[in-house]
Design a protein that fits this description.
- Helices cover about 40% and strands about 10% of the residues.
- It contains eight helices and seven strands, in the order H-E-H-E-H-E-H-E-H-H-E-H-H-E-E.
- The protein has a five-stranded parallel beta sheet. A two-stranded antiparallel ribbon has the order 6-7.
- Strand 1, helix 2 and strand 2 form a beta-alpha-beta unit.
- It is globular.
Length: about 210
């Protein structure tokens, strides 16, 4: 995918407005959704560097550690990757090549709490921070918060305000308390939450059972 110079100028407007309004009191994380080829991603990165982003997330498709390493070497902004990866092995490839600076992990996609903690430890051996992802539902979010508290190299826990103040509450008995930009530890046994009984009465419910 490519964009014109005019489209680039329009795309920079929100960054310009943020910096003019709040200066450097607000971090900007740039989610690039793996939409770009390598030359275009590099061009976008150069245009955004003056606004001092905190990171570039998933600038290209996460199927080439070499290409991501080339992107990382071309910019002064740290690279965050990737919520789309499964298991610790692709993270090792990217860390070994210097392709990512922040390990973002979605526990639901990458293998659960055990695999997530292994990835966090792997990143820590490379002096890289850990940043759990949120967007796959309230149970995944709660698990990610637990994982965040358990790892010494956790940088930030992603949360989606529209989700945890909205439809997440329709599914589970408890969610982490978010106060002054911080998630507080959950209370209770296990994850500290459970599915609401009403979930099992929904007309759109799909149940899958695996026999031992």
């Amino acid at each position: 995918m490519a964009i014109t110079a005019e489209e680039m100028r329009r795309a920079l407007d929100p960054f310009e407005k943020i910096r003019k309004r709040v200066g450097d009191r607000m971090d900007i994380m740039v989610e690039m959704h793996s939409l770009w080829n390598l030359p275009m991603a590099m061009k976008i990165a150069r245009a955004l560097e003056p606004y001092d982003p905190c990171w570039f997330e998933d600038p290209i498709r996460m199927n080439s550690p070499q290409a991501l390493a080339e992107f990382a070497a071309s910019t002064t902004v740290p690279v965050c990757a990737s919520e789309t990866l499964g298991s610790r092995f692709p993270y090792k490839d990217m860390l070994d090549r210097g392709a990512t600076h922040i390990a973002m992990v979605d526990l639901c996609w990458t293998g659960g709490l055990t695999e997530g903690r292994k990835i966090a430890a792997l990143a820590d051996t490379c002096h890289r921070p850990f940043a759990p992802h949120d967007c796959t539902g309230p149970v995944g979010f709660v698990a990610a918060v637990h994982c965040s508290f358990s790892q010494p190299n956790t940088l930030i826990q992603e949360s989606v305000r529209a989700f945890y103040t909205g439809w997440y509450k329709e599914l589970v008995t408890a969610l982490p308390v978010i106060r002054d930009g911080h998630a507080l530890p959950m209370e209770g046994s296990g994850l500290g939450t459970d599915l609401l009984p009403a979930v099992f009465e929904r007309s759109d419910l799909t149940v899958r059972r695996t026999e031992a």
